Amino acid sequence: MFKFKKLKSLIVLSLLFGPMMIAAGPGLAADAPAGKAPPKLVVFMVVDGFPQEQVTKYYDQLSDGGLKRLIDKGAWYSDNNYTHATTYTGVGHATLLSCAHPYKHGVIGNDWLDKKTKERVYSTEDPNYKYIDENTPKHAGTSPRNLLVTTVGDEMIYQNGTSKVITISGKDRSAIGLAGHAGTAYMHSTDTGRFITSTYYMRDYPDWWTKFYESKPQDKYFGMMWTPLLPDTAYARSAPDDRPWSTNYKGLGTKFPHPISGGADKPGKSYYDAMLWTPYGDLLTLDFVKAAIAGENLGKNPAGVPDLLAISWTSHDYVHHLFGAESKQAQDHTLRLDLVFAEFFQFLDKWVGLDNVLITLSADHGFMNIPEYSTSKNLDAGRIDPEKMIEETNAALSKKFGEGKYITTWWNPTLYVDYALVDKNNLKRADVENAAAVFLRNYPGVEAVYTRTQLENGNTPDTKLSKQVYVAWHQQLSGDIVVINKPNWYLFAKPLAYAATHGSPWAYDTNVPLMMMGSKWVKAGKYGSSETVDLGRTLAYILNVRPPNGCEGKVLTEALR
Fold first, then answer.
1. Percentage helix, strand, coil, to 5, in the chain?
2. What's the pLDDT score for residue 303?
3. Do 149 and 251 belong to one domain?
4. Per the domain annotation, does 290 fall within a domain?
5. Coil/strand/helix, residue 416
6. What are the DSSP calls for 27-76, one per residue?
7. The whole model's pTM is what?
């Protein structure tokens, strides 16, 4: 790509792996082990916030060339699950190509608390690097510093030195988590509507990027309207729009049609932000993806080694936050994203031939239904306000141990204990933790509570939930009291900010698609159980590279040729 980028990759990989061993050269594909040439291009797709149930719920309305093509002509694991409890965007994207669990890869949430500075840590922040030609706010995602393991892309570059690893997403934490340490991440900027990167990856943008943005292609969707793709009768399986609990956000309104302007009279920050919360965000992403493929000549590596393009499609998550996974908007967006995939696959076929491409699809998490919708269906549901929960917990602890703010803050989904205060008051840490746990287990909407002492000593119930919590909890980084909400209960900061959210260990959040399509490597069919960490491990196997150093997945051999 660039001399600077290549030098940066070599430096990063030498730090990760020790002395470099780059043996690949022209003819590697032909000389691959067992004569099995790897794909020329791996397209690793993630749909942000895509529950498995939507694959089958809308199957009959899908086009033949998009999702249905992946389902029918690829390997589809319908019982694929995350096995960690913290189903958040940063966590999922860090997991997918590292095939490691949070307790190992270190990305324990979108945010957490630095116990030394007592400051918020954003999962991909790094003050040592800035956005190129853009304002860089505090806590902006600029590097993979907090990712403690390698990824499949890192191992590809380590093995041959010439593979290109490019990742693209509407969110910085998604692109950076997929890129690993040696890839190049591009993320959407709401300031300019462009897909940008940081000085971690390069000093300046490549020529193809500059040429692409000369005509301001990000402005072409201004003033568009998001209207339903199908007649009203086709949406009978979904909840109607304009329900009282939908969220009017970014000037989009709660009912079709949704204006794509951000309330502005010309393209600007409010429009660039609002657009990404609609299907036009997918079209914007596709435009840039095509430019990146051509600009980087992906899949046509002169050394004969594979390239990796990872794309996280962000807008589906945003649609669910505003309208719920059960909504008419969610159904319509799924169908529109399917058409984007169909167009993308046609582009890939013309570019390098689909027979030379391995395409995978998964998600970083699923999604809950809106709590009020669940209540209307006679289910136990509601919203938990973390700030109120902290206040009431501290009141209970003060009554028992003396006045004090024993719980300082909450980050998904853990409470942080002020152990300095506990020690100052000559209290036993386990006593304070246990008292908090007793109070919280009776708190409305709380399913279970785990304390630091429990987790450090391995003293937890022998249940699936305990195992999910354990693999999500990092001893040095995580908080001190883990609070798990009941199914259908909303637990997130500012409980009224969104209509619905994710982050739980329940099936609607953990059960996501795992699909692979590539006739030379994959046997088509519907398969049974898998874990999301298996996808990255399987890719490493197909590519004949070593597993990422924290990988705990298995090779899905039953689906391979």
1. 40, 15, 45
2. 83
3. yes
4. yes
5. strand
6. TTTTT-GGG-PPPSEEEEEEETT--THHHHHTGGGS-TTTHHHHHHHSEE
7. 0.94
| Averaged confidence pLDDT in the chain | 94
258 phi, psi to nearest 5 deg: -105, 120
How many domains is the chain partitioned into structurally? 2
129 sits in the region (left: phi over 0; alpha: psi -120 to 50; else beta) called beta
Q: Could you count the other beta carbons within 10 Å of the beta carbon of residue 304? A: 20
Rounded to 5°, the CA angle 472-477-483 comes to 50
Is residue 496 in some structural domain?
no
CATH number of the domain enclosing 443: 3.30.1360.150
Residue 260 lies in a domain: yes
Which tens digits make up the pLDDT trace of 291-348? Answer: 999 999 999 998 889 999 999 999 999 999 999 999 999 999 999 999 999 999 999 9
Whether 498 is covered by a domain: the verdict is no
Task: Give φ, ψ of 312 to 5 degrees.
Answer: -110, 115
Of the three residues 491, 525, 544, the one that is the final residue of a domain is 491
Which of 539, 533, 535, 515 shows the shortest CA–CA distance to 525?
Answer: 515
Among 459, 491, 523, identify where a domain stops: 491
Side-chain half-sphere CA neighbours of 211 within 13 A: 7
The pLDDT tens digits of the residues spanning 481-530 come to 999 999 999 999 889 999 999 999 999 999 999 999 999 999 999 999 99
